[in-house]
Every structure is written in structure tokens, then in C-alpha cells.
Amino acid sequence: DAMVIQNPRYQVTQFGKPVTLSCSQTLNHNVMYWYQQKSSQAPKLLFHYYDKDFNNEADTPDNFQSRRPNTSFCFLDIRSPGLGDAAMYLCATSRDSTGSNTQYFGPGTRLLVL
Amino acid sequence: DAKTTQPTSMDCAEGRAANLPCNHSTISGNEYVYWYRQIHSQGPQYIIHGLKNNETNEMASLIITEDRKSSTLILPHATLRDTAVYYCIVKEAWNNDMRFGAGTRLTVKP
Predict the structure, then answer these.
(1) Residue B32: closest CA among chain A residues belongs to which residue?
(2) Is the separation of the CB atoms in B89 and B101 below 8 Å?
(3) pLDDT at residue number B103
(4) Which region among A105-109, B66-70, B91-95 has the lowest average model confidence (pLDDT)?
(5) Helix (H, G, I), strand (E, B) or coil at A84
(6) What does the DSSP 8-state code read for residue B106?
(7) Are B21 and B103 in contact (CB under 8 A)?
(8) For the segment A33-46, what is each residue's pLDDT rounded down to a tens digit?
């Protein structure tokens, strides 16, 4: 049973055309994360939500925004995609920041920018 | 967070145990050791984690040295589907950034 769901698995957009990637979870976890993974590189954290509190990484470009309308869903908005934004985007969740705080990842959405 | 050092790549014969080492000599007392793997074009998959004691689950065993400066992930009977990049990560529970390093590319061969 899928626990962290990302749709679509593949997304094609045009240079400069806004695009939204979606993530949902059935785990009822408090924390949701977005990572970017470029080809042959390790995943890199963009930002995360602890409940409704948004936490941006210092080096995440302003072009990347996120929304979390409720516990189950989280969206990644790329306002003006550039060719350098082509990557796999990974959503993850964790119950909270206590205990071991294990993160569980979705399958990812691969973004292609034309 | 403490840094980790892993071999770039390893091979393992199908059916044999795969032992993946990780060095984390600067680990602090409240940092956990996590292992994830990533099969090509998929999201990272959680395998196991531990603080001080050795751990075992249905996927693998984690052996942490007494001084906690290194650990070994053991896949007891590797299959071709275990071919993946394996990441060893150390971090405190409160830290939300799962800082992935380069990992070890494990290739299981028939």
C-alpha cells in the first residue's frame, strides 16, 4: 500500500511556465519534506513543513515555493522553471522531530523542462 | 552533523551476504545512524537505523561498533533486486535535513 504518493511520476513543462508537483500521504505524519535530486547527485533538501509551519533551507531559490493545505497534501510550485531545474523531486514525511524521526520517501516526480 | 565515509562501489554475488561499511568517526552521542537505499529512478527507501545497539529487521542488520565510529549494514542473502546506491547518514533526531552523501553503489551479480 502506497504511503507517500507523488503524482505525476513524470512531468514535462516549458521553460518559464509555472508547474506544480503534488504529494500526498496516508501516514498522518506531521512533517513533510521536498528534496531535489539532480542527475547522478544525492538528494538535497529544499524545505519542509512541520504541521503548518514552513521551513525554508537557506540556499533554496525563491523560484521554489510550497503549500500545505492540510495534513495529507503538500505541493511544490516552481514559478518559472529553468533548464537547470530539471531533476527528480522527492517528497518525504516523518511523524515528528522526536525519537528517531525516520523519513519515508515517495517514488518521486521527474521534471523535464523544454 | 557528523560526516560519513563510504566506499564508492562494491560488488556482491547473488545469495551471499553483502556487508556495506560506513565510517562516522566524528559522530556525537545523540546522533542516529540511518541507512537508506535508492534503486535507479526510484525514491530512497528506508532500511534501518540505530543509536547504540545493533539492530535487525526483515530487510537487514545494522552493526554499530562499541565506540560508534563505524557501522556495517548487512544484507544477509543479496538478490539482484538489491542492486542500488546505499546511503549511510548520521543525524540528530531533531534535525530535519537528511543529508545524503555520495553513498555506495552495490551491484549484485549472478
Answers:
(1) A100
(2) yes
(3) 94
(4) B91-95
(5) helix
(6) E
(7) no
(8) 999 999 989 999 99
ω before A61 within 30° of 0 (cis)? Answer: no
Instruction: Kindly state the cell numbers that stand for B17.
Output: 551476504
Contacts of A46 (CB under 8 A, 6+ apart): A34, A35, A36, A56, A57, A60, A64, A66, A76
Name the residue type at position A47: F
Q: Report residue A91 CA to chain centroid gap.
A: 4
Residues of A in Cβ contact (< 8 Å) with B88: none
Residue B47 has pLDDT above 80, yes or no: yes
Section A12-21 average pLDDT: 96
For residue B107, what is its C-alpha cell?
551491484
Angle, vertex CA A19, rays to CA A81 and CA A52, nearest 5 = 110
Which residues of chain A are within 8 Å of residue B44 when distances are taken between CB atoms?
Answer: 43, 90, 92, 105
- DSSP per residue over B69-92, as a string? SEEEEEESS--GGG-EEEEEEEEE
Mean pLDDT value across chain A:
93
